């Protein structure tokens, strides 16, 4: 059973999964904006390009590496982005970031996941936006965070996965912001590290 995360909530990923997690997947899903048209004619769909990113931080809270649509793999190979969905078309996760927690270098203290609206629509316009964390081995959803309809912002610092006393934990940050890429969010991420 998954946990529907609230802003500020912290969970132990190992406890939620029932075992030590080795690999996790962060999934991001959303739907294109649908307009009904005039008297049912001319209905159309407006593409929405949301982007999932992961920033790796060290013990001194310095960014070490970034996984996003322009760099789909971390330099050490422990994190892989599946690619950029530019429309929101389709069901399920539109973008995924795969993390092999066993391969994340010891010098990495935290991973921060963000979502940005590259095309500029704010989240109050985007339907069914969510992110979720899955146990990659079993496919079991460990945690879910609903991103939709929280206001007229174009970005969100979603969650932080971090090491604490030898286990991985997750902090649902849920900080609304504005920006087209993760780079716009770095000053807002730092207080959460």
Automatic annotation (TrEMBL):
Protein's recorded name: TerD family protein
Keyword Iron: no
Gene Ontology process terms (BP): response to tellurium ion
Keywords (A to Z) from UniProt: Tellurium resistance
Annotated Gene3D superfamilies: sav2460 like domains
InterPro entries per the UniProt record, alphabetical: Stress/Tellurium_Resist, TerD
CDD domains per the UniProt record, alphabetical: TerD_like
Keyword rRNA-binding: no
């Amino acid at each position: 059973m998954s946990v529907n995360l609230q802003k500020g909530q912290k969970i132990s990923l190992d406890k939620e999964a029932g075992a030590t997690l080795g690999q996790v997947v962060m999934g991001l899903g959303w739907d294109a904006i649908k307009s009904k048209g005039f008297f049912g004619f001319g209905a159309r769909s407006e593409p929405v390009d949301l982007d999932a990113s992961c920033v790796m931080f060290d013990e001194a809270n310095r960014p070490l590496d970034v996984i996003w649509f322009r760099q789909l793999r971390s330099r050490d190979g422990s994190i892989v982005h599946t690619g950029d969905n530019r429309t929101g078309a389709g069901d399920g996760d539109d973008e995924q970031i795969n993390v092999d927690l066993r391969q994340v270098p010891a010098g990495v203290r935290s991973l921060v996941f963000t979502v940005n609206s590259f095309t500029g629509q704010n989240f109050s316009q985007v339907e069914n936006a969510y992110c979720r964390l899955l146990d990659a081995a079993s496919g079991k959803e460990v945690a879910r965070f609903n991103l939709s309809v929280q206001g007229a912002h174009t970005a969100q610092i979603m969650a932080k996965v971090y090491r604490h006393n030898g286990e991985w934990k997750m902090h649902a940050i849920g900080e609304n912001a504005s920006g087209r890429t993760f780079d716009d969010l770095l000053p807002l991420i730092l207080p959460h590290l």
